[in-house]
Structures are given as structure tokens and as C-alpha cells.
Amino acid sequence: MFDENPEAAGVIFSTGEIGHVEDPSATPEQRAGLQKVVTDGGKAVVDASLADTLKNELADRLEADQSTAYVTFTFLCCAIVWLVFASAFGLISSIKLHNPEFLTEYAWLTFGRTRTLHLNMVAYGWCPMAAFGVAIWMLPRLLKTRLYGGRFALLGCMLWNAGLIAGLGSIAVGINDGLEWLEIPWQISILLVLGGALIALPLVFTLRNRKVGHLYVSIWYMGAALFWFPVLYLVGKMPAVHFGVEQATMNWWFGHNVLGLYYTPIALASVYYFLPKIIGRPIQSYNLSLIGFWALAFFYGQVGGHHLVGGPVPHWLITLSIVQSMMMIIPVLAFSVNQHLTMRGHFKTMYYSPTLRFIVLGAMMYTLSSFQGSFEALRSVSTVAHFTHFTVAHAHLGLYAFFSIVMFGAIYFVMPRVMAWEWPHPKLIILHFWLVTLGIGIYFVGLSIGGWLQGLAMLDATKPFMDSVLVTMPYLEARTLGGTLMTLGHLVFAVHFVQMALRYGTSRVGPALLHKRKSLPESQAFAGA
Fold this sequence. Notes:
single chain, 17 helices
């Protein structure tokens, strides 16, 4: 399993490209810092005889990028808008937890609605729009052809956002289905199902016209995710089918599966593509990547039941969920070991590449959140952590520290290719990274400690319930501090994105490297695109 598989793993590279870093719109001089790390590691071999072949293949790649530019840009613009609104409502909800009188004069600004609006803006606004945009951009690159069916994706995007806006409006006025992650009324949800199905169609059409003989593992992850989501959501929102205890079981079947079978595969597909491309080295073991995919597909389906520990559900169902949660250690280990071995000797490249800095941090958080989730499913841990802020901290570790941070890194790589323009202010990328990293760090640590103390207080029969509330107050304030930093980071990101989209600011011909370095001699630099 640990043997290198260069033929399968190298399909994402063009001829002679392995060993050379890729950062958008780079000149040899500006990429020298990145390339120097790889060259010093003995991975780069410059073969002048392959220059013409590489030039032709890079021209095909440019055509593929151009075919996705408008569709990808549309999705990413929607993602940024929802990220800003979701951040605002999340911050309002956080403040209300330790200052209940904050913004209480309007019904739609009460905690029950602002928190639900925040969740749906994140779960069905920022996250899927970013995921769809990045996936559609990667698809032609991985299949080495242009995008087919882009108009279906645009139509799906319109239906999806129309459904989301209508759903958020219904939640704001107090109309919802009362199930976490499934609050949008089912009559409106039809638009999301149709939109998701339409967005997945370009995968089918582009696959039929592919120019590669081997489907890279990222295609497996993206293909599964793009078809799993409409099915999951359709089953979850089926009217007049789910009632009582069975409805609660279905609720957490959906709630966990949308995380593990939609958001997670898209993020893993991104890591498996961007990380090797940036450092110019195929993943260490292609076999491990396939084990990770199939283990995720087989073991994740029933993990949601551990949220019902102690509930009036069959004992075997809870046990099955706990077993599958622990079995998830297999795909997580496969991914984590694979990524670490791939990055071995190349960690210094994070000093130069903004994309890699986000991607590697997000990949590390996948390992941490997944291991925490597996052990949190155990009855001994769940007894304390259940119904506390501890589970909220864990959810943000997965959906934000893992998924969102990977998406940030991917967007920093994709947008220069989409716009044929460079990020105007590299220092804003640094500011964004540290704001969101410090923010989620404070958020996670604060809520984890506060949630655990809250659980212990609730288990103590000698203490009144209010003691379990009061003990969390300092940690809820820490949550707001972390959320404020994250929101500021998102605003910096949004402003920079708008500047990029409008081609505002200093014109750059090279990549937005975080740290400049003296140029290497031209003979040591790689002139590829």
C-alpha cells in the first residue's frame, strides 16, 4: 500500500511536469522560492526534449480552464455572498448566547431564527457554492478536456439560489420543518434537489468526452459527492414518510451523511489535486487513496446514529453507529498517512505558497476532527458531551477548520486561472489566513472546554441546571471573540475577491507568493505555466 504508484497518481500532471511547482500566473523568477525547495529535495528533473510536448499539453489545459471560467466564477461569487451573510448571522447568534437582550426587538432576529438562518446559509449557501465551483473547475483539468454541459450547471445554480432565498425567507418569518439541517419547507426544497441534480450533469457529459484513460481519485470523490447529495436530500425531505422516532433517526442519518458524503469528498478531492500540483510530486500511494475512498463510502452511511445515544431508538442501531464511527479511523488514517508522506521534505513550501498553507492546514484538521468524531461517538464520551457546546465545537472543526479552509486555499489557486489576473494584495492573503486560523482556534478550544464543563455540571444531580449554563459564560464570550476574528477574515477575503473580480489594484504577472525570495538563475527555474 505504501509503494509509489507513479502511473496512476501522475495522471494530473502533463508530460515532464512532475518535479515542478505550479502557482497561478507565475514567472520563473517569482516561483523560484517554491521551486528551490523542490529542487533541493532532488525531485525536479528538467528535460528540455519534452518542452514542445509540454507546451501543447499546457495549451489544452488553458482551453479547459477557459471552458469553466464563467461557470466557476458564477458559483464562487455566490459562495462569497453567502459567506458574508452567514458570518454576520453567526456572529449575532453567538453574541445572543451570553447577551440575550441583544437585538430582540424583531422576531426574525431572535436566537432561534438567526441561528437557523446562519446554519442554512453555511450548509446550503457558502459550502455547496464553493464546492460546486471548485469541482466544476477541476473536472476538465482532471479529464483533460473542455467542460460539457456548463449551461445545466448555471441553470442548477439559479434554481438552487432561488430555493435557498425562498427557504431563508420562510425561516425568517417562522415557517420551517423543525428538523436540524432540514428546516427549509419541503415544497421549497424541490428547487434544491433539482438544482443539485442539474449541477451534477456536467460530470456525466464531460466524463463521456474525457481524453484520459484513467480516472484520478479526485474524480471518484467528486462524482460520488455530486450524486450522493441530491439522493440524500430527496430522501430526507420526502413528505409524509418520516414520523416520530424514525424521523429523528432519519434526521441524523441525513445530518451526518451530508457532512461525510458530500462536503468531505469534495474537500478531499481538492486536497488530492491541489497539494500534489503545487509541490510537483504525485501522491505517495495511489492505493491508499482508493482505500480511503471505499472505506468512506462503506463506513460512513450509519454514523449519524451516535447523536441518538440515550434516545428511544433500537439499541443495535446505536451500536452499529458507534462501530461505524470507529471504523472511520481506517479512511482517515489512509488519507492522513498518504498526505504526510507526500508532503515529507516539502513542508517548507508552505512558507511560499498561500494555497498550500490553507490546503495543508485543512487536511490536518480533517485528521483531527475525524478522530475526535470517532471517539466522541463512544457512549462514555457521549454521556458527557451530548447536548453541550462540545458538539458545536466539533462541528465547526469539521465544516470550518477542514472544509472551509480547504475551499479558501482552492479559491486562491483557481481565481487567477479563472480571471487571467493575479491577486492584487498578497498581504491580505496573510491577514485572511491568520484571522481565520486564530479565530477557529479560539472558537474550538473555548467551546470544547466550556462544553465539557457544561456536560459534567448537567450530570451532577446536586447542582441546579442553571449552574451548567453559568459555567459556560466565559467560554461563550471566547466563542464570540473567535467568531469575530473569523468574520473579519471573511470580510478581508470578500474585499480581496471583489478587487480580483474587478481587476482592481496593482497588476501582477506572477503568483501571490507570501514571501519574496531572490530569484534563481534562469537555468534553474521552470518556465511552464
